[in-house]
User: Fold these one by one.
Assistant:
Number 1:
Amino acid sequence: MILDRLGFVVKSMQNRSAVQLYKPFKGDAMTSMARGKPEFVTPDKAVKIIKSGDHIHLSSVASSPQCLIHALCARGRSGELRNVFLHHLHTEGPAPYADAEFEGIFQLDSFFVGANVRNQTQKGFADYIPVFLSETQRLYRDGYLPCHVAMVQVCPPDEHGFVSLGTSVDATLAAIETAHKVIAVINPNVPRTFGDAVISANRFDYFVQDDTPLETFHFTKPDPVEEAIGKHCASLIEDGATLQMGIGAIPNAVLDQLGGHKNLGIHTEMFADGVIPLVEKGVINGEKKAIDGGKMVATFLLGSNKLYDFVHLNPDVLMMDVGYTNDPFVIAKNPKVTAINSALQIDLTGQISADSLGAKFYSGVGGQVDFFYGASRSKGGKAMIAMPSVTSDQTSKIASVLLPGAGVVTTRAHVHWLVTEYGAVNLYGRSLQERARLIISIAHPEHQEELDRAAFERFGSHYHFIGK
């Protein structure tokens, strides 16, 4: 595919790999962000605008602009740059800028610690900004973080001169709005999604052509523990509920159990392939939503190419700014909001550690608190923490106290439902001793007596010991 330097528009067809040249676009002259006709350049030339000390935003998750990342790292190796700050939500795929070789050249301060930068973050070669997912966009819009250059990925422009951010709106839209310069990779593999994802091509300074496939993630079939957790969660989900699901195997296991439900809706930070069969069966139709009726609302996506094909040109999917999807007061407008998230560890009072294992940062605050608060304010809403009772090495994830250095992401006051493979308990409105007994009741049986004794030592003789 050849992109004319004079600004010819590429129209994305139903098949995302098929493109066709169209007449030059007129652009969106009324937008306050209009920059003029973007220039088509190579990745190497595009990253030449980056200077030492600049703050760079990268589009996130499945849509990180790999050709620009490679070109930027090449500049870093040449010795041209120092102290360039990089920001993004978590990304999939290679993240070489976080490697030790770039110490003093690139500094990654991510909004969420993904698997591809976890080791580097724990070793101190990268860092993490604790922030609610809903407020990541505020870091740019309210000036807490500068954005000198935004490097994003979009689908080809349509005949009207509009592109789409595809699978990743999150804080990227805010970065585009506030950046001094914006580089957009035009990639025919990016699906054309609607909502806040749609942007005039005239809002960009540079276009770069690339056809690297988006990063994909394939969820495995739930194992027996995940299946049991999925069944317990599904039993709590009512017909007509609006669902939020985090990332991972357990949300996928929950979706597997919802085939008999009716009139479910989606308002979430992300979704994956598991929603597709439920949409095809009519289980997910959004009919009972109070806002965005009939629409599936998210801010980023991660899944297989089947998912990306599903959302391409799909008017029932709205990809929205994270300041909208994760605003607790927006979330609460829908009835029966059911939020399902996970945890690394929980103590006997209900404190949730979700971003760190002890002092080692493992993920991020994410949208857990956003949706817990939103669900708790929703009429008939339910907020759930769903997790296996033990880790892969059989260590209990339910602890008498959190590991030293662990951060509390979700407070004991936020927590409502806790679900493991051994059942589901509602902690809301329960005293500390009542909570301890309920939490222990769904711990792994091999750890219950030890946890019971710890609770007795903590709360004294008034605590009713229930171990053997």
Number 2:
Amino acid sequence: MNNLKARLAKERRFRLYGILSIALALTLLSILFISIFSQGYTAFQETKIQLDINFEQSVLDPKKTKDWDVVKKANFNILIKNSINELFPDVSGRSQKRKLKKLISTSGEYQLRNYIKNNIEAIGTTKKMWLLADDDVDMLIKGHINRSLPENERRIDNDELKWIEVLETKKIIKKFFNKTFFTSGDSAESEQSGILGALLGSLFALSITLIISFPIGIATAIYLEEFAPKNNKFIDFIEVNINNLAAVPSIIFGLLGLAIFLNFFELPRSAPLVGGMVLSLMTLPTIIISSRVSMKAVPPSIKEGALGVGASEIQAVFHHVVPVAIPGMLTGTIIGMARALGESAPLLVIGMVAFIVDIPQSVTDPATALPIQIYLWADTPERGFVERTSAAIIVLLIFLILMNSLAVYLRQRFEKDIN
């Protein structure tokens, strides 16, 4: 009787320990998500200032606008200076006016240039335009800079703070949805930086990974599980190495890609093509192992029944065994792809860590990946990049959650169709 009570008490304690472990894990996960979201959600907004831009003919010569190498950035800089000086006529002195102009991001010149390039008829007219604010102004409006701090403890001095308060009073400084974050590449200025280049780099690399690893992985699993000779030393050697490769640190695959793809085959450095090939090497063991496990889980009676009614070995495998194992194969593939999406170490080794402003157009163009972009921004102490680091992590987590949810959905869908 005492032994029974002791066993029941141990069982209750074991259950309690399990509940406490799950609660602790969920608590820590919640703290992580709250911390990331609280620091990054403001990156999905950007601050803009409305100015009355007078596109003066004396500054923009209509005869020269067809040659955009002639119409320099300085021309549009003059337009912005004239406009913001009209808002603050009391500001005098070159240093004060230069400081006043710095309230507007340097991207304002490019915005005006693109507008005139597409609207030649606007030369000689005045138009209200919302221009991107400087990153320090953006941080102040979002509340990341405390206005009550002494002047020497904040990056906005008293004059700039006074001007910003005037803009707020006139309601010509506002926060908008940050389309720049999703439509531009990396930049040295935080308010102009975005993740489009990194997203496309990850997309191209994952496409190459899927194209290479999925058919090879599935074919290898089918052969090893169904057609490979048993008790064969060579096959046993291959199986042991596949299992070992699944536990190899990811940076080793990066070194392998550096030695073979870059140094030996001389493929383009920092290209998604090489990144996808390296990630496919890393993903293959996961797909092979998960596919073999799925095929082992298929009841032997299914294959035996097909053979019993006259089907060949190949027909029995591809028409009966593989369709039943497909849910597990797809799940393993998507999980492997999700792991590849979050990897940074092998991509660092092959040079996808470069600062790249241009948006990649193909798999051979220089590019970076989303985890690498997060790494680059996290290494920058500027407050604007800290905000964007957390926002990029949020985007990456959303993609990972969606990919894992897709794996669960496909598994359930195929299992229902099979049943």
Number 3:
Amino acid sequence: MKLRILILSLLICCTLNLSAQSDTLRLAFSVRGTVVDATNGVAIESALVTVPGTNYSTVTNADGKFTIKSGEPFSSVQVSVLGYKTSVCEASPDKPVRIRLKPESYALEGATIISGDAYDLVCAAIRRIPDNYSSKPELLECFYRETVRKRTRYTYISEAVARMYKTGYGDGIYGDRTALEKSRVLLSQKPSDTLSVKVQGGPAQAVFLDVVKNPEVLFGPETLNQYIFEMGQPTYIDGRLQFVINFKPGPQITDVALYSGTLYIDSENLFFTRIEMSLDVSDKGKAIRRIVVRKPLSLRLAPKEMSIVVNYSYDGRLARISYFRSVFRFNCDWKKKLFATSYSAINELVVTDIRPQAIPIARSEQFRTSDILSDKASEFVDPDFWKDYNIIEPSESLEHAVDRLRKGR
């Protein structure tokens, strides 16, 4: 499964969408805050924020800000992120909290073994997937956002609250589905924005790029043998020691672009905690075939970056997907132009809750891998629509982008 990018020669105008709101999703209690590095005050992006004892969660934005909501009153939040000590802090709806995370420092116990064959360790973690991840279906509530920038200016912002139905991790991905609860999209109508970059699949990307559950991405028997694995320096995530394994393409020649990256494997239970992958874009032809669905013949495209991060949270018994992010950066120009224009497409999904009943998503509701989020949106009329959901708090730059796009209508 590839990240599907659609490049069109003409900008498609879309409006905002609202469908009937479900009372079961209304979250009346919320806390706002900012997460920073305790040593220098720098904002920490993509930190996982949860309400202890519940399934409610969100992540911090580029400015370290978050809003976490719950159906019941709560007095504390837990924050965790790679490289920092997990922190539980008091929280109140009356006053924003500022959470200072301390960088993680650790001393390995004498009995901890960090040597050995990295490939064998990865294979052992793969064998443990049925034990470490849910064997029963689950219905997850998610927030999804995709943005496109032309140079430094946003030209496209699309968001959705979605459901993700996942079968047991031993059953493959083909029974997994996503469906929209709500969505909204804003597109630039500036005359100079004659190129539209859109992402096929929307929130369904996280289904097919759930690397642990979909062996076709990395962990299939044939795919795995195309890579070289090496042990890295161990670290902590959420207070748990992690084996760190770096991987890169092997010397054999393949017809498709391969990834390089890092795997984080829990040292105690051998579950995958985090997976970072970057596609090799040195061969432009291979990279384009893996990423781009369609483009005009007269458009020249040069991929610069295609990276993916998938996080898995652990509830003390099982691990499950909690966060997905992909970044696609590229230059493109028409053949008659002298200079290329840089574009970037960033897509994020965070699991914000687990529904108590794993009700399958009907095929008629399914958001398919060929669907484009903006094409499924229509008129948005309720300015309070998003207040009852856990979403990724917009960063200041994104808020300004939304304002500019709205003013351009």
